[in-house]
Amino acid sequence: MTIREIITVPNPLLKTISEPVKVIDDEVLSLIDDMIETMYAAPGIGLAAIQVGVPKRILVIDIAREDEARNPLSFINPEIIDPSEILNSFEEGCLSVPGVFEEIERPDECTVKYLDKDGVEQSVRCKGMLATVIQHEMDHLNGVVFVDHLSKLKRDRAIKKSIKSRTSEKNNNE
Ligand SMILES: [Zn+2]
Fold first, then answer.
1. Which domain holds residue 160?
2. Which residue from 18, 21, 81, 151 lies 20 to 30 Å from 29 (Cα-Cα)?
Protein backbone atom coordinates (compact mmCIF):
# COMPACT_ATOMS: atom_id res chain seq x y z
CA MET A 1 0.00 0.00 0.00
CA THR A 2 1.17 3.48 -0.80
CA ILE A 3 0.34 6.78 0.81
CA ARG A 4 -0.62 9.08 -2.04
CA GLU A 5 -0.36 12.86 -2.17
CA ILE A 6 -3.59 14.69 -1.35
CA ILE A 7 -4.33 17.63 -3.64
CA THR A 8 -5.56 20.86 -2.09
CA VAL A 9 -7.45 24.00 -3.10
CA PRO A 10 -7.15 25.80 -5.47
CA ASN A 11 -6.01 22.79 -7.55
CA PRO A 12 -8.46 22.77 -10.51
CA LEU A 13 -8.55 18.94 -10.48
CA LEU A 14 -10.86 19.24 -7.46
CA LYS A 15 -13.51 20.62 -9.82
CA THR A 16 -13.44 17.47 -11.98
CA ILE A 17 -16.60 15.40 -12.28
CA SER A 18 -15.35 11.86 -11.63
CA GLU A 19 -16.18 8.97 -13.97
CA PRO A 20 -18.02 5.81 -12.90
CA VAL A 21 -15.87 2.72 -12.37
CA LYS A 22 -16.58 0.26 -15.21
CA VAL A 23 -14.56 -2.74 -14.02
CA ILE A 24 -13.46 -3.49 -10.47
CA ASP A 25 -9.98 -4.75 -11.33
CA ASP A 26 -6.71 -4.95 -9.39
CA GLU A 27 -5.95 -1.33 -10.22
CA VAL A 28 -9.22 -0.20 -8.59
CA LEU A 29 -8.70 -2.46 -5.57
CA SER A 30 -5.16 -1.21 -5.00
CA LEU A 31 -6.36 2.38 -5.40
CA ILE A 32 -8.91 1.71 -2.64
CA ASP A 33 -6.17 0.24 -0.39
CA ASP A 34 -3.98 3.28 -1.04
CA MET A 35 -6.88 5.65 -0.34
CA ILE A 36 -7.57 3.97 3.02
CA GLU A 37 -3.86 4.14 3.93
CA THR A 38 -3.71 7.80 2.84
CA MET A 39 -6.86 8.65 4.85
CA TYR A 40 -5.43 7.09 8.04
CA ALA A 41 -2.04 8.75 7.55
CA ALA A 42 -3.55 12.23 7.04
CA PRO A 43 -5.46 11.58 9.42
CA GLY A 44 -8.99 11.99 8.11
CA ILE A 45 -12.39 10.28 8.23
CA GLY A 46 -13.15 10.24 4.51
CA LEU A 47 -11.45 10.55 1.16
CA ALA A 48 -12.60 10.65 -2.46
CA ALA A 49 -10.40 9.32 -5.27
CA ILE A 50 -10.17 12.76 -6.90
CA GLN A 51 -8.42 14.01 -3.73
CA VAL A 52 -5.48 11.81 -4.72
CA GLY A 53 -5.86 13.01 -8.32
CA VAL A 54 -7.83 10.04 -9.70
CA PRO A 55 -11.17 11.03 -11.31
CA LYS A 56 -13.05 7.82 -10.43
CA ARG A 57 -16.28 7.52 -8.42
CA ILE A 58 -14.75 5.90 -5.34
CA LEU A 59 -14.97 6.94 -1.66
CA VAL A 60 -13.45 5.58 1.52
CA ILE A 61 -14.76 6.47 4.97
CA ASP A 62 -13.98 5.47 8.55
CA ILE A 63 -15.90 7.27 11.28
CA ALA A 64 -14.85 4.88 14.08
CA ARG A 65 -13.75 6.76 17.21
CA GLU A 66 -10.13 6.64 18.29
CA ASP A 67 -10.91 4.08 21.02
CA GLU A 68 -12.74 1.82 18.55
CA ALA A 69 -11.35 -0.69 16.06
CA ARG A 70 -10.77 0.63 12.57
CA ASN A 71 -13.74 0.16 10.29
CA PRO A 72 -12.85 1.25 6.75
CA LEU A 73 -15.83 1.44 4.39
CA SER A 74 -15.42 1.72 0.64
CA PHE A 75 -18.04 2.82 -1.85
CA ILE A 76 -17.76 2.34 -5.61
CA ASN A 77 -20.09 4.37 -7.87
CA PRO A 78 -22.09 5.67 -4.87
CA GLU A 79 -25.42 7.41 -5.38
CA ILE A 80 -27.43 9.28 -2.80
CA ILE A 81 -31.16 8.72 -2.73
CA ASP A 82 -34.02 9.77 -0.44
CA PRO A 83 -32.35 12.62 1.46
CA SER A 84 -34.44 13.62 4.49
CA GLU A 85 -36.17 16.97 4.61
CA ILE A 86 -34.79 17.47 8.09
CA LEU A 87 -31.43 19.19 7.94
CA ASN A 88 -28.58 19.02 10.38
CA SER A 89 -25.39 21.00 10.56
CA PHE A 90 -21.95 19.78 11.48
CA GLU A 91 -18.65 21.58 11.54
CA GLU A 92 -16.87 20.16 8.51
CA GLY A 93 -13.25 20.09 7.50
CA CYS A 94 -11.53 18.62 4.46
CA LEU A 95 -8.09 17.20 3.75
CA SER A 96 -8.13 19.24 0.54
CA VAL A 97 -8.92 22.47 2.42
CA PRO A 98 -6.55 22.20 5.39
CA GLY A 99 -6.89 24.70 8.23
CA VAL A 100 -10.57 25.51 7.55
CA PHE A 101 -13.61 24.34 9.54
CA GLU A 102 -17.13 25.59 8.82
CA GLU A 103 -20.67 24.63 9.79
CA ILE A 104 -22.45 23.16 6.75
CA GLU A 105 -26.14 22.27 6.66
CA ARG A 106 -27.15 19.04 4.91
CA PRO A 107 -29.98 16.48 5.03
CA ASP A 108 -29.77 14.60 8.33
CA GLU A 109 -30.40 11.22 6.70
CA CYS A 110 -29.89 9.72 3.28
CA THR A 111 -29.57 6.35 1.61
CA VAL A 112 -26.44 5.50 -0.32
CA LYS A 113 -26.49 2.90 -3.07
CA TYR A 114 -23.10 1.62 -4.19
CA LEU A 115 -21.04 -1.34 -5.32
CA ASP A 116 -18.84 -3.12 -2.81
CA LYS A 117 -15.35 -4.40 -3.70
CA ASP A 118 -16.89 -7.61 -5.09
CA GLY A 119 -19.12 -5.59 -7.40
CA VAL A 120 -22.25 -6.44 -5.42
CA GLU A 121 -24.87 -3.70 -5.19
CA GLN A 122 -25.41 -2.52 -1.62
CA SER A 123 -27.58 0.10 -0.02
CA VAL A 124 -27.36 1.62 3.43
CA ARG A 125 -29.44 4.23 5.27
CA CYS A 126 -27.11 6.79 6.86
CA LYS A 127 -27.87 9.15 9.72
CA GLY A 128 -26.06 11.94 11.55
CA MET A 129 -22.29 12.00 11.16
CA LEU A 130 -22.12 9.20 8.56
CA ALA A 131 -24.78 10.94 6.44
CA THR A 132 -22.75 14.16 6.58
CA VAL A 133 -19.47 12.47 5.67
CA ILE A 134 -21.06 10.53 2.79
CA GLN A 135 -22.60 13.71 1.37
CA HIS A 136 -19.35 15.64 1.80
CA GLU A 137 -17.40 12.93 -0.04
CA MET A 138 -20.10 12.56 -2.73
CA ASP A 139 -19.72 16.28 -3.44
CA HIS A 140 -16.06 15.66 -4.32
CA LEU A 141 -17.12 13.21 -7.04
CA ASN A 142 -19.17 16.03 -8.54
CA GLY A 143 -16.35 18.58 -8.38
CA VAL A 144 -17.66 20.31 -5.25
CA VAL A 145 -15.71 21.04 -2.07
CA PHE A 146 -17.50 21.86 1.19
CA VAL A 147 -16.60 25.55 1.13
CA ASP A 148 -18.59 25.80 -2.14
CA HIS A 149 -21.68 25.63 0.09
CA LEU A 150 -20.70 28.95 1.69
CA SER A 151 -21.44 32.42 0.32
CA LYS A 152 -18.86 33.62 -2.21
CA LEU A 153 -17.39 36.03 0.32
CA LYS A 154 -16.97 33.35 3.00
CA ARG A 155 -15.68 30.83 0.45
CA ASP A 156 -12.99 33.16 -0.90
CA ARG A 157 -11.95 33.96 2.66
CA ALA A 158 -11.83 30.24 3.58
CA ILE A 159 -9.68 29.35 0.56
CA LYS A 160 -7.29 32.22 1.28
CA LYS A 161 -7.06 31.08 4.89
CA SER A 162 -6.31 27.51 3.81
CA ILE A 163 -3.56 28.57 1.41
CA LYS A 164 -2.07 30.87 4.06
CA SER A 165 -2.14 28.14 6.73
CA ARG A 166 -0.08 25.90 4.46
CA THR A 167 2.41 28.62 3.56
CA SER A 168 3.05 29.46 7.20
CA GLU A 169 3.43 25.75 7.99
CA LYS A 170 6.08 25.49 5.30
CA ASN A 171 7.93 28.54 6.63
CA ASN A 172 7.89 27.12 10.13
CA ASN A 173 9.49 23.93 8.88
CA GLU A 174 12.30 25.73 7.14
ZN1 LIG B 1 -13.36 16.76 1.57
1. 12-168
2. 81
